[in-house]
Automatic annotation (TrEMBL):
It comes from the Bacteria. Keywords: Membrane, Transmembrane, Transmembrane helix. The chain crosses the membrane at residues 40-56, 76-94, 114-136, 156-180, 192-212, 232-250, 262-283, 318-340, 352-374, 394-414. This is OpgC protein. The keyword Membrane applies. The keyword Membrane applies. InterPro entries: UCP028704_OpgC. Residues 1-32 are annotated as: Disordered.
Length: 423
């Protein structure tokens, strides 16, 4: 079976220029690409990090990737989602044509939309129940900035259904939905050539980041609140660049970078040397070690604010994540062979079990993500009524890990349609 790389141009990927590829008849069934094990592994890792990051007041968030550089688990999720979409939806476009491919994307957007609505309603109801029956000093509704919904529900309910009311905690799925909606456009441009896809994606990203071409700070965005000018925390017009980068690598539109010592050194240097410029945690370490150096670095934070911005997906974040992705690809090895446990030692067996669990979570990322966002708020409440000690925090984080693993297996079981008679 052919191997697909996260950067597929070098191994097992189609490298024929897009414009020169023959178009398969719609009736022809093209072989479905095998799923890359590295894709599910790294997306599974992202799911665990996302759970940690969304538990309020969680000590463990001090050690997530976002505390050491520009990019974080959101980048892993979006990039891997682009790769997975190239396998799932790209195959449909190739086998059944643009119309049916677009229809499948539209159906997925429909699923994501209702996942967003269901998540919002469940969490809002849960927080309301805690405020109504708990008698706590803090307001859990206010902690998520949901007071406008409960104080004036009519416009907010309309805004919820039209995605013009998107509170910060609920903005990842709407971003993902809009980015998915751009896929038919990109697949239509593919008929012209990859250069047209790249130009469209980069052009949309530049419109979201106009400072890159000297046009000022305000770019295209979507409103997050009917009563203010606040935009979506994750601007889909900026983040689509990362999604379609992953898509392009998995489709073979972009060639795989070589495994090179020079590139490895450059990637490591980028991550280490720029850490004090993008992480307060690392900056404070530098300040404690060398106050004079910290004094030189400090003014750059204001100068680079747009370049490392999370909302519009600044250029420094893009470079930071690509450096991480390259190192992750090199570490995993061709076909992910370094991830696979070998031998019969206790360590190998433990790693084999962990790899299986992480991979399962990555395979069911949408179900796990929705579940983990709801679970994180409940775990935060559980921590509020305990002492939040190191051991208690560890218990709730590990319990959360166990629950999202269980969610992944349950989702996989339902997707297998076990009630159907096997012949």
């Amino acid at each position: 079976m052919a191997t697909i790389s996260p950067f597929p141009g070098a191994q097992g990927a189609e490298t024929t220029p897009v414009a020169n590829r023959p178009v398969a008849p719609q009736s022809e069934a093209l072989p479905r690409a095998p799923r890359d094990p590295r894709l599910d592994f790294y997306r599974g890792i992202a799911m665990f990090i996302i759970l940690c990051a969304h538990i309020p007041g969680n000590r463990w968030t001090s050690w997530i990737p976002a505390r050491f550089g520009f990019s974080d688990a959101t980048e892993i999720f979006v990039f891997c989602s682009g790769m997975a979409s190239a396998i799932a939806f790209g195959g449909t476009f190739a086998r059944q044509g643009w119309i049916m491919g677009s229809a499948r994307v539209l159906f997925r957007c429909w699923q994501v939309f209702w996942a967003h609505i269901g998540l919002f309603v469940f969490i809002a109801t849960s927080m309301a129940a805690l405020d109504l029956y708990g008698g706590f000093e803090k307001s859990y509704i206010a902690s998520l900035n949901l007071l406008p919904l409960f104080e004036n529900p009519v416009p907010q309910l309309v805004g919820l259904m039209t995605l013009s009311y998107v509170p910060n905690y609920f903005d990842i799925l709407p971003m993902y939905l809009v980015v998915l909606g751009l896929m038919p456009l990109m697949m239509g441009l593919e008929r012209i050539g990859f250069w047209a896809v790249a130009a469209a994606s980069i052009g949309i990203w530049l419109l979201a980041n106009p400072y890159m071409v000297g046009l000022g700070p305000n770019g295209i965005s979507l409103s997050a609140e009917p009563w203010s000018n606040r935009e979506w925390f994750f601007n889909p017009f900026g983040w689509q660049l990362l999604f379609f980068t992953g898509f392009a690598f998995m489709k073979g539109w972009l060639p795989a970078p070589p495994v090179s010592r020079v590139l490895i050194v450059c990637a490591v240097a980028y991550l280490i040397l720029l850490a004090p410029f993008g992480s307060w945690k690392v900056f404070l370490w530098v300040k404690a070690w060398n106050p004079d150096l910290a004094q030189i670095i400090r003014p750059t934070w204001a100068l680079t604010s747009e370049w490392r911005e999370k909302t519009d997906f600044g250029l420094l974040r893009y470079g930071h994540f690509l450096s991480l992705a390259y190192l992750g690809w090199v570490i995993a090895g061709a076909g992910g062979h370094r991830l696979i446990a070998s031998g019969h030692s206790t360590a190998a067996r433990i790693w084999a079990v962990l790899l299986s669990l992480i991979t399962k979570v990555g395979q069911q990322s949408l179900a796990v993500f929705v579940f983990s966002m709801a679970l994180a708020r409940l775990l935060g409440f559980a921590m509020d009524i305990t002492d939040r000690s190191i051991m208690t925090t560890a218990f709730f984080n590990l319990a959360g890990f166990g629950l999202i693993i269980g969610c992944a297996y349950i989702a996989a079981w339902f997707k297998s349609h076990p009630w159907k008679t096997k012949r």
